[in-house]
Amino acid sequence: MEYKTIKDLDVSGKRVLVRVEFNVKLNKGEVGDDTRIKESLPTLKYLLEKNARLILLAHLGRPQDELSGGKSVEDVKKDNSLAPVAKHLSGLLGMDVKMAPDSVGDEVRTMVNELKDGGVLLLENLRLYKEELDNDCEFAKTLASYGDIFVFDGFGVAHRVQASPVGVPLEMIAQGKEVAAGLLMDKELRLWEEARKKEGHRLLVIGGKKLNEKVKAVGNLYKAVDSVLVGGAVYNIIIAGKGIAVGDSLIEEKGKDYTGKGKELSGEVGNLLLAKRVVIAKKGDFSDYREISVDDGVPNGYMITDIVIDDDIKAEIEKAQVVIWFGNIGISDAEVNGAHPFAKGTEDFKKTVSKNAYVIVGGGDSITASEGLANSVISTGGGAAIALYTTGTLDALEAWKGNKDYFN
């Protein structure tokens, strides 16, 4: 893969648009896990050392889901503003990061024009605008007009055909402006290229909630690995696809029932590792939980919250020399009476992985869950990592190349 990085450019005194991945969890208006923000610091610090003027583009959460549900922009913005991120980033950089009230508009343009060398401006959540998700041409042109150079460092959205990852760089290239990868993006591309080349017994671990993304991951990746361990929602739909009752376990996404897909995967994926016992908890009252045999079925009102790593599964984990992990195995962050009873599957998995294995952890929640895992490397994207591992390219990467035909 040939592409420019920020080290190939003269950025001094230039307005540099940087698409970062700051989609982090907020707890009472404070940043929780700041791994993604910290991963962007080498790029930001390098550009600041070169006296660039940084205009940061980012998103937070899925505000369009709330807006389509009838909430006002003002109400949605309260819980989806990047202002807490700007405050947190100010502390990490040891300088004032200015927070724009919006991502477009006269006030934003004024703040961009007034930015000094070595200054940082964070624009408000791009996804408050549907135009960002739709890769709207005029929206992309407006964002592109703020910068002299575009730097992509948001690996987590590199597989999205949206305005900031794709529309903006294509527009800037059309205007004769320079486009490059940030240091994080460069690291991610090299990390996954190495994973594709490594030899040895391969284990894919899929968990989490994003059904559409994770179902595609299993379908695309299972032939490239020796075994596939599933937890989370993917486990639910496979069990449901086998005709076993799953109670109120998550098997739907955006109104679509994935049981049929689960049935397909159970028949298609011959190297599937499927837990025989699970932990279930009462929906709405996680303090009522217990371990059961999955063949007995999950009663109504209860949901699968974790899987049990038995000796057969442990034997497969121990063999693995390359481990690719996307998404939590169970609802490991759920707290019950000060404890985390649904994190045992994840912890047992971590204890079993060989200390000599090459482990890539992809995506937000699994990054937090992987703390303490030996020899692991962190990837800031789940879906992007899956796309890159399976296809060898990314939509954002094709945009840097100015490859308009790719998007047609």
Please render the helix and strand layout as text.
Elements: E1 15-19, E2 26-27, E3 30-31, H1 35-49, E4 53-57, H2 63-68, H3 73-80, H4 83-93, E5 97-99, H5 106-114, E6 120-122, H6 130-133, H7 137-144, E7 149-152, H8 163-174, E8 178-181, H9 183-197, E9 202-206, H10 211-221, E10 227-230, H11 232-241, E11 252-253, E12 256-257, H12 259-268, E13 272-273, E14 277-282, E15 285-293, E16 302-307, H13 311-319, E17 322-326, H14 344-352, E18 358-362, H15 364-369, E19 376-379, H16 383-391, H17 395-400, H18 404-407
Parallel strand pairs: 1-4, 1-7, 4-6, 5-6, 7-8, 9-10, 9-17, 10-13, 17-18, 18-19
Antiparallel strand pairs: 2-3, 11-12, 14-15, 14-16
Helix pairs in contact: 1-4, 7-8, 10-16, 11-12
What does this entry look like structurally?
- Helices cover 40% and strands 19% of the residues.
- It has 408 residues and is of the alpha/beta class.
- It folds into two domains: 6-186 and 393-407, Rossmann fold (3-Layer(aba) Sandwich); 198-374, Phosphoglycerate kinase, N-terminal domain (Rossmann fold).
- Strands 5-6-4-1-7-8 form a six-stranded parallel beta sheet, with helices on both faces. Strands 13-10-9-17-18-19 form a six-stranded parallel beta sheet, with helices on both faces.
- Strand 18, helix 15 and strand 19 form a beta-alpha-beta unit.
- Helix 1 packs across helix 4, helix 7 packs across helix 8 (163-174) and helix 10 (211-221) runs parallel beside helix 16 (383-391).
- The longest helix has 15 residues, at 35-49.
